[in-house]
Amino acid sequence: MSDDGAPSKASDIAGRKSDHIDIVLAGASAQPRGRATTGLDEIRFEHCALPEIALGAIDLSAQFLGRRLKAPLLISSMTGGPERAARINAHLAEAAQELGIALAVGSQRIAIEGRASGGLDAQLRRLAPSVPILANVGAAQFGLGYGVAEAMRAVEMIEADALIVHLNPLQEAVQAGGDTDWRGIFARIGEICRGVSVPVVVKEVGAGISARLARRLVEAGVHAIDVAGAGGTSWAAVEAERAVDPRLRKTAMVFADWGIPTARAIAEVRTSCPGTPLIGSGGLKTGLDVARAIRLGADIGGQAAASLAAADLSSEAAVAHFAGVIEELRIACFCTGSADLAALRNAPLIDPPGFVPSQSDPA
């Protein structure tokens, strides 16, 4: 509370973020009214009835941010009120370490401003000493005074390997009191890329990144792109659930299925940025979806909402969830005759959509 008894800005933000967790867990934000889809279901592998490889010998390893992953999987950004976030972050860090996969934290705004850490401190690196950890700040904050110093604070507080800058203009536009002046943000991202000591990853939060924007970001110094396409969590729908004002709720729901479907975003960004590390996320529910994302051109797949219930429960539940995703990916490789991820990227498809490059096209 503030001195006059009104809720403080910090408590408002913490409460909002905890609301986000509850809404996502309730499923109210996923594919509202069945309209938005990732497009991943359109990607159908040709079954290999005689794979001539051993399931247990399939190599799922990948290089990411200078570290070796045991599987091409990123636990994507999740958040919550500080106390709840601390528990979730600890569970995810322990799962990432045990399984050898990467971890991206949620927004560090509250921690950067010194109001509560939410588990985003040196303890996170102690729980996950050998896997890539990605810090996270919102691009909108660069229009409100954040700069290189704040970005580096986010990195240093968790000893991160990279910094995510997340883009959420739609969410801000439909949120009461959202940050909607984005003038100059692109230039500020370039300044951050030049000023911080770690690679910068730019991601959307569920509406996708276009090939055109991805190319511009890479030219500005961004190291990697996380497309975070449409078809999974709709943050417009999340904000609609939170809205008290009926008009704002109605407006938010108009945009509940807005965005570039995940499958299309992955394929088109890969074509536009052939040498750029690419994370495919946005509605990935299973290891088969991860396989589809990799076949479309992603280097690794990211998953958030589908794992949130397990992460909220315990480290063991989080490990079990992601172990299942990895096993599903392994089976997809086995049934396409793919001994490793390089082979999976060239696995034959049945009637691929037009946005999928042919196997002869450059990847």
Structure notes:
This protein has about 375 residues and is α/β, with parallel strands linked by helices. It has a single domain, classed as Alpha-Beta Barrel (TIM Barrel), CATH 3.20.20.70. The chain is about 40% helix and about 10% strand.
Order of helices and strands: HEEEHEHHEHEHHEHEHHHEHEHHH
**Global shape:** globular
Number of discrete domains: 1
Binned strand content = 5-15%
CATH fold descriptor: TIM Barrel
Number of helices: 15
Mean pLDDT: 90
Query: Biggest sheet: strands side by side, in what order?
Result: 3-4-5-6-7-8-9-10
Which segments are poorly predicted (pLDDT under 50) over 5 or more consecutive residues?
Answer: 1-8
CATH architecture: Alpha-Beta Barrel
Helical percentage: 40-55%
Question: What's the CATH superfamily, by name?
Answer: Aldolase class I
| Major sheet size, sense and barrel closure | 8 strands, parallel, barrel
Total count of strands? 10
In whole angstroms, the N-to-C terminal distance is 53 Å
* Radius of gyration, in angstroms, nearest whole number: 20 Å
